[in-house]
Amino acid sequence: MSKVCAIFGGSRGIGQAVAQLLAQKGYHLAVVARNLERAQTTAINLGAGHLAFSCDVSREEDIQNTFKEIEKSLGHVNYLVNAAAINRDGLLLRTQPEDMLSQLQTNLVGTMLTCKAALKSMVQQQGGAIVNLGSIVGLKGNSGQSIYSASKAGLVGFSCSLAKEVARKNIRVNMVAPGFIHTDMTAHLKEEELKKNIPLGRFGEPSEVAKAVAFLLETPYVTGHVLIIDGGLHLLT
Ligand SMILES: NC(=O)c1ccc[n+]([C@@H]2O[C@H](COP(=O)([O-])OP(=O)(O)OC[C@H]3O[C@@H](n4cnc5c(N)ncnc54)[C@H](OP(=O)(O)O)[C@@H]3O)[C@@H](O)[C@H]2O)c1
Question: How far is the CA of 85 from the centre of ligand 1 (A)?
Fold first, then answer.
């Protein structure tokens, strides 16, 4: 069976690192993001046999159309990685309802919708694997990130439930929960201060998260797991 993996949020950061690692392992990648040019640059750099698609995961119709396009050009999707997310950090009292909704729609509902779309072909093929990107903040909470945290905590319940729902179809659903990783999402943070609280004493690299994602995609007897990749941050908070 050919290995076709759709990576939502695959154009930059952690998703891009996952795409690079999986390309080396012989997967055919669909690199998906809103900015098509950026996704195309990533896909071209992966080499031949990989394609870029533009899709906003907060729009169900976009997701439906994207899966149709992917299946037409690359074949059935049997692996799915959900790395598309946004954050609008701020204290709850200062958070606007539209910023609450956009985070929940993109991070939580977007992932639910891509999983639903991918499952159709995975069920047909009697097999597949999904990895959803959560966050240590979804497990431990963080001041100023209550909505982002809720979106990621929601993914834990969703992923564990879905893991139970589709296990008999030989489809596995797992999560990784990163701490601070060097990407655009963390570029504005005060790293020197924050890394003092990390037992391993540094931020992580996208390639380090990618290894965990690949492990969960490829390990046949693991489902419903949340793998923390945070340099030990969870031990202290
Ligand atoms: N970096 C960290 O420290 C950290 C820690 C914990 C968890 N995470 C999680 O890890 C995942 C990847 O994070 P990252 O740091 O790599 O983020 P990033 O560098 O900001 O990249 C986000 C990716 O998601 C895409 N994206 C954003 N909104 C989208 C939408 N509505 N529809 C489709 N694609 C969308 C972006 O492309 P476009 O903008 O072109 O759409 C980009 O490819 C996220 O789930 C994040 O919450 C990250």
Answer: 4
pTM of the model: 0.98
Whether residue 148 lies in the annotated active site: yes
CATH of the domain at 42: 3.40.50.720
Q: Whose CA is nearest to atom 36 of ligand 1?
A: 9
Taking each helix axis from N to C end, the angle separating 146-166 and 110-125, rounded to the nearest 10 degrees, works out to: 20
Host H or E run for residue 32 = strand 28-33
Q: Is the CB of 56 under 6 A from ligand 1?
A: yes
List, for residues 33-85, the tens digit of each pLDDT value. Answer: 999 999 999 999 999 999 999 999 999 999 999 999 999 999 999 999 999 99
Is residue 26 within 8 Å of 3, Cβ to Cβ?
A: yes
Confidence of residue 237 (pLDDT cuts 50, 70, 90): low
Query: Which residues constitute the domain of residue 182?
Result: 4-235
Query: How many domains is the chain built from?
Result: 1
106 pocket-lining for ligand 1 (C-beta < 6 Å): yes
pLDDT for 2: 81
Q: Is the CB of 13 inside a 6 Å radius of any atom of ligand 1?
A: yes
Q: How many whole angstroms separate alpha carbon 66 and alpha carbon 45?
A: 21
